């Protein structure tokens, strides 16, 4: 993880930056799936928890070869008018490190009840008796809205930037460019 590319969302009168970030992230995710890549990490250097936002920059982390291969796929077709992208650049030598991972939460009791009813061959009323409203959780993490290619449903991908660490931890990244253990350089 010695190289990076920053992709900045440009202001647009027709689309919010949140919608554009979702489209950008979705395109990158599909490219990572196509390449079966597990050596590219993604972070959001402008993220904040209050107000919840991933910010306007998506940063790709990896080796020069991995990032060049990803960019050669023309995975950003249709986004070029909405983004500004830096070239490949070396990670600063004084960079800290952090884990950027996906977090999943039970945020909708009614959805959990429908799922339980389907999986356990119960009625919706039986599922309501077993799953109280108190399972719902308010989440303060920023997220990106994506569309599942398999189900066609929109879902929220919650992203947590972990604590800063002095040393890198190597590992593999998901097709979302996230890892529960591997770190990305943070600067």
UniProtKB/TrEMBL annotation:
Entry's InterPro entries? Answer: CRISPR-assoc_prot_Csy4, CRISPR-Cas6/Csy4_sf
Which GO BP terms, alphabetically?
Answer: maintenance of CRISPR repeat elements
Provide any one GO MF term from the record.
endonuclease activity
Query: Which top-level group of life is the source organism from?
Result: Bacteria
Instruction: Cite the NCBIfam families for this sequence.
Output: cas_Csy4
Q: What is this protein called?
A: CRISPR-associated protein, Csy4 family
Per the UniProt entry, what species is this protein from, by scientific name? Alcanivorax dieselolei (strain DSM 16502 / CGMCC 1.3690 / MCCC 1A00001 / B-5) (Alloalcanivorax dieselolei)
